[in-house]
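quick q for whoever's on today - can somebody do inverse folding on this one?? i tried earlier but teh output was garbage lol. tokens:
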């Protein structure tokens, strides 16, 4: 840990915050208060205490941000050459890296995640802007052969004003994942971060402006989903919506967008299986399963929340997994223990409810299963690593997205049963496979219905790999060159030339 980061951590531990955190909307290139003067608090999950207030926006603030984005779309941003946009995005990446320590500490305080995880998210955000910086002048159309008497080609045009509804579990990562390709495609942005985690989206918008992004191109409005988020997704000036969150809210977003026929990319829930075959590298699979469910306290849409394992290695594998789970220390994210808190008291109670009901049904709780606090301070919202063993296919803990550090274990006897169990929920976001068999790995990759398959490394890939789900996990793709296409409209031009 460098000296600057150490100083920020000490400041946060001593005062509960760091100085200079943003507390207003970022609209048209500057911080502005809420139109009606509303304020609300954001809480540190590691202590359970509020540590800063911020603007509580509503439809008036959203309208001001959309109007600023519309005006910017007609301004110099429209005529900026793709190569110049790329250089600007590269400068944003440099600003993110230069501010990494401050962004990471703010993210830890706001979301509760471990400091090392937050630092990884900041590095990922910078890499995202770098990737799309290089893509700006390579997002080209096609020439279509109609014969010697005609000329036909396609142009990629920006979708327009894009709305980004950002979740609380990965505030900076998800903001960058949507904003960077939108800017690369030439769009303008209005982002609404989750009310639980507003800070790093505001900090990112300020860094964009400092890097030279024209006023109005990237705007951030904070507030509740009901007051600000709903107003944004139903605003007639929005041409594209990128939403990451729950299935229920995603359905509401679709309905709100329908009257204006607004384009959508929805990244919703998951109940992702990690399929472990008997011939796997046990150590590799243990590490993968552990990270898949307990990173960010299991609060990941793509978390490997189901272990689908060969019966013949089940007991040995789960015994070793249990020992590793029980060795994980809980603590405030700034102490960078084995696992941090969950996002709120209400969310902790929701997780606890699932486990309590499972125990009442006679499910074997191998470890964990009781809500707790930071063992050092007695404060905060914590839930320990938990394993529910040998669950039937239709059990509530198998079918529902718990969104916490709770692993549901299912057993199979052959590959066909493994596929059936893997596909046995309403979700289809990602899946993991651990095996030494090339043939089995790719048979499973073919047969499992998910938007992304990880083989022998969970969370494999990078910003270059498209990401999104099937079925109730949503539709459309973020990341990779697919995201540029999501934020673009194709215009076809055909001409008779002889």
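ok took a stab at it. sequence:
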């Amino acid at each position: 840990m460098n000296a600057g980061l150490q100083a920020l951590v000490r400041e946060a531990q001593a005062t509960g915050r760091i100085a200079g955190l943003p507390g207003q909307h970022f609209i048209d290139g500057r911080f502005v208060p809420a139109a009606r003067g509303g304020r609300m608090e954001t809480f540190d999950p590691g202590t359970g205490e509020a540590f800063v207030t911020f603007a509580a926006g509503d439809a008036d603030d959203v309208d001001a941000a959309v109007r600023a984005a519309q005006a910017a779309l007609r301004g110099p941003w429209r005529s900026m050459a793709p190569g110049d946009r790329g250089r600007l995005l590269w400068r944003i990446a440099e600003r993110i890296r230069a501010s990494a320590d401050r962004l990471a500490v703010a993210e830890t305080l706001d979301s509760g995640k471990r400091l090392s995880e937050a630092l990884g998210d900041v590095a990922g955000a910078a890499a995202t802007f770098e990737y799309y910086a290089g893509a700006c002048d390579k997002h080209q159309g096609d020439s279509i052969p109609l014969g010697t008497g005609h000329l036909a080609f396609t142009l990629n045009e920006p979708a327009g004003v894009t709305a980004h509804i950002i979740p609380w579990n990965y505030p900076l990562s998800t903001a960058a994942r949507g904003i960077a390709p939108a800017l690369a495609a030439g769009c303008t942005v209005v982002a609404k971060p989750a009310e639980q985690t507003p800070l790093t989206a505001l900090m990112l918008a300020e860094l964009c402006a400092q890097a030279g992004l024209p006023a109005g191109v990237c705007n951030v409005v904070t507030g509740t989903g009901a007051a600000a988020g709903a107003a944004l997704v139903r605003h007639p000036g929005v041409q594209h919506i990128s939403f990451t969150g729950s299935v229920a809210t995603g359905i509401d977003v679709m309905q709100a967008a329908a009257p204006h026929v607004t384009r959508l990319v929805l990244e919703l829930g998951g109940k992702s299986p990690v399929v472990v075959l008997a011939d796997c590298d046990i150590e590799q699979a243990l590490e993968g399963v552990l990270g898949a469910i307990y990173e960010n306290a299991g609060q990941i849409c793509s978390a490997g929340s189901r272990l689908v394992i060969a019966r013949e290695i089940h007991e040995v594998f789960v015994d070793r997994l249990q020992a590793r789970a029980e060795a994980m220390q809980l603590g405030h994210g700034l102490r960078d223990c084995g696992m941090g808190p969950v996002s709120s008291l209400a969310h902790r109670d929701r997780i606890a409810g699932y486990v309590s009901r499972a125990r009442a049904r006679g499910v074997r709780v191998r470890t964990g299963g009781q809500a707790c606090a930071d063992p050092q301070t007695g404060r905060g919202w914590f839930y320990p690593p938990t394993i529910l063993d040998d669950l039937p296919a239709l059990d509530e803990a198998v079918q529902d997205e718990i969104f916490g550090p709770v692993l549901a274990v299912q057993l199979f006897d052959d590959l066909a049963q493994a596929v059936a169990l893997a596909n046995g929920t309403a979700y289809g976001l990602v899946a993991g496979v651990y095996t030494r068999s090339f043939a089995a790995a790719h048979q499973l990759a073919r047969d499992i219905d998910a938007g992304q398959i990880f083989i022998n490394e969970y969370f494999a890939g990078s910003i270059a790999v498209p990401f999104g789900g099937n079925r109730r996990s949503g539709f459309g793709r973020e990341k990779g060159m697919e995201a540029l296409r999501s934020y673009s409209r194709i215009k076809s031009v055909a001409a008779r030339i002889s």
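fwiw The mean pLDDT is 96. also The longest strand covers residues 150-158. so keep that in mind when u check it
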